[in-house]
Amino acid sequence: MSHHTVHPSALAVRGAGYEVDGAKLIADVDLDVAPGEFVGVIGPNGAGKSTLLRTVHRVLRPTAGTVRIDGDDLWALPPRALARRMAAVLQENVAEFDLTVEEVVAMGRSPHKRLFSADNDDDRRLVMTSLELVGAAHLGPRGYPSLSGGEKQRVLLARALTQEPALLVLDEPTNHLDIAHQMEVLSVVRRLGTSVLAVLHDLNLAALYCDRLYVLAEGRVAASGTPAEVLTPGLLADVYHVRADVEVHPLTGAPNVVLLPPE
Ligand SMILES: Nc1ncnc2c1ncn2[C@@H]1O[C@H](COP(=O)(O)OP(=O)(O)OP(=O)(O)O)[C@@H](O)[C@H]1O
User: Fold this and answer.
1) 55 CB less than 6 Å from ligand 1?
2) Keyword annotations for this protein (predicted)?
């Protein structure tokens, strides 16, 4: 008998491609998220980051390759079973629900419930805990459409948290947030210990919070590794066409990118 326990990747993307109208939006993408790992996807505008996340969240069916979650093919899982394992906050901001914040967040419980069953005390507690985690408990009774962009973003994250997923898929989870809420939201997600795949534009935030990074450029993985391995002046010049100085910050231990004006 083997004493090795096999831990399948929380997420395993193999040779994934998505082609539409003859354009390859992503191609040959291999990507893993280990259980509990916080993995970032970075890269310039139009590189294919959102397309990749949509294939991972089964919004798009890849035209090549496979996506597996805990070893199971994404497309072989019934939608509700998938929703119990994976939650996402993607870019296309869901139609403006005419609901209260609490009702929007409670929607995250639906994959765990039978059709039309009422919310129980556990559900209500989870909704409140999730809202507290993202610093939005005070918004509970408000109408969702009346929230600011940053408030909506935190509420949608709370909804994803009530889904209690093993894997969180986040497309620019901090783009509407002020600096304090950026740190708060990423710290909360980090502390959950959930596996995370997140598109981040801010390289220094990515360096602070991610275990590993994948750099997408023109639909392909241009580099991957720890933030220190990936965030080099050479890569930033190649992929983003910027001049940058990178040093490990003495207080954070993370690489810190300083952009330099063009020469
Ligand atoms: N139907 C289509 N035909 C051709 N190209 C498309 C089509 N749909 C999207 N694209 C292009 O695919 C590329 C990848 O888009 P995607 O949204 O995945 O990029 P991204 O890395 O998330 O960019 P950003 O940082 O700007 O959000 C873009 O250049 C986009 O214009």
Assistant:
1) no
2) ATP-binding, Nucleotide-binding, Transport
Rounded Cα distance between 218 and 52, Å, is 12
Q: How far is the CA of 73 from the centre of ligand 1 (A)?
A: 25
Q: How far is CA 69 from the centre of its chain?
A: 15
Distance CA 223, CA 39 (A): 13
Q: Domain map of the chain by residue range?
A: 11-260
Q: Which two tokens stand for residue 92?
A: 């296309």
- Rounded to whole angstroms, the Cα distance separating 198 from 206 reads 9
CA of residue 24 to ligand 1 center, whole Å: 10
Residue 220 phi/psi, 5-degree rounding, is: -120, 160
Q: Are 195 and 36 in contact (CB under 8 A)?
A: yes
104 within 8 A of 155, measured Cβ to Cβ: yes
State if residue 27 touches ligand 1 by the CB under 6 angstroms criterion. no
On whether the CB atoms of residues 107 and 156 are closer than 8 A, the answer is: no
Contacts 24+ apart (CB under 8 A), 48-52: 48/18, 48/216, 48/218, 48/219, 48/220, 49/171, 49/199, 49/216, 50/90, 50/91, 50/171, 50/199, 51/18, 51/25, 51/26, 51/219, 52/13, 52/16, 52/26, 52/216
SS3 232: coil
State the Cα–Cα distance between residues 39 and 152, nearest whole angstrom.
24
- The model carries a pTM of 0.93
Q: What is the CATH number of domain 11-260?
A: 3.40.50.300
